[in-house]
Design brief:
Layout lengths: L1 H29 L22 H14 L7 E3 L4 H6 L15 E5 L3 H14 L3 E4 L3 E5 L8 E4 L13
Parallel strand pairs: 3-5
Antiparallel strand pairs: 1-2, 2-4, 3-4
Length: 163
C-alpha cells in the first residue's frame, strides 16, 4: 500500500514539474525580445530604440492574432526629420523622432492587407493607412482617432474598418 502512494506522489510531482516547465517556456517565448534595429531610420543607426513600448506591444498582439510576420516586414519605423522629408512623410508624422509611434508594414497582397487591417482594429489600432504594398499603423493619440486613409495622400482607403 505504501509503495502505491509513493508512486502516486512521484507521478503527481513529475506532472507538476512538466506543467511548470511548459508555463515557463511559454512565458519566455511570449516575451521574446524585439529587434528594434528593424525600426531604425536609415540615416540614424540605433534610432529604433525610441519606438513607443505600448506601440510595440500592440504590434506583438497583431502578429499573434494575424499570424503574419509583422516584425520581419517593417518598411519604416522611426524617422529623422531629414528621412521623413526624403520619403514624402507629412510634417507632423507619427514616425518622426521623438514620437516614434508608427510603422509601415510590407504586405504583398490585397487579401493579406485586408486581413491585417481588420486584425489591427481588433487589437486596438485606431489609425490605419492602407497603401498598395503596405499598411501604416500608428498609436498617436494626439491625432484624430478611428480613421483610415489611402495613399497617395487624400485617397480613399481600399478598406476602412471604422465604417
Amino acid at each position: 500500500m505504501f509503495k502505491n502512494k509513493q508512486h502516486i506522489i512521484w507521478g503527481v510531482s513529475a506532472v507538476s514539474i512538466a506543467v511548470m516547465g511548459a508555463i515557463v517556456w511559454r512565458t519566455t517565448k511570449a516575451k521574446q525580445k524585439i529587434d528594434l534595429k528593424k525600426f531604425d531610420s536609415p540615416d540614424s543607426p540605433g534610432s529604433g530604440r525610441c519606438m513607443d513600448r505600448q506601440f510595440i506591444r500592440m504590434l506583438q498582439k497583431l502578429e499573434k492574432k494575424s499570424k503574419y510576420p509583422i516584425f520581419r516586414n517593417i518598411n519604416s519605423g522611426a524617422r529623422t526629420a531629414y528621412w521623413n522629408t526624403k520619403v514624402g512623410g507629412v510634417s507632423n508624422s507619427s514616425h518622426k523622432i521623438p514620437t516614434c509611434k508608427a510603422a509601415d508594414i510590407s504586405m504583398p497582397t490585397k487579401s493579406i492587407r485586408n486581413k491585417i487591417v481588420v486584425a489591427a482594429k481588433l487589437v486596438g489600432f485606431k489609425r490605419i493607412g492602407v497603401g498598395k504594398t503596405f499598411v501604416h499603423l500608428d498609436s498617436d493619440d494626439s491625432k484624430s482617432q478611428y480613421v483610415a486613409w489611402g495613399y497617395p495622400k487624400g485617397a480613399k482607403p481600399p478598406i476602412n474598418p471604422f465604417v
